[in-house]
Request: fold
Amino acid sequence: MWEYISAYIDGEVDVELRARIDKHLETCEICSAVLDSTRNVVVLIADDRVFELPAGYSKRLHERIDRELESSSDLAPD
Reply:
């Protein structure tokens, strides 16, 4: 299922595979959620509006990334 989500959304799977995916989605909440989330990402990426980031956001983001990287390197075996 995972490897076909993008093609499924784009209508690029054959009729038989689409039917199998549709049947699977009727009972699989996880795959249905992944499909919905993927569709939402596609919509957001296609949205050409520009949103202003809050003041200081970039600095806070970089600080958080640095902390996460530092913390994950502390866990890595020597």
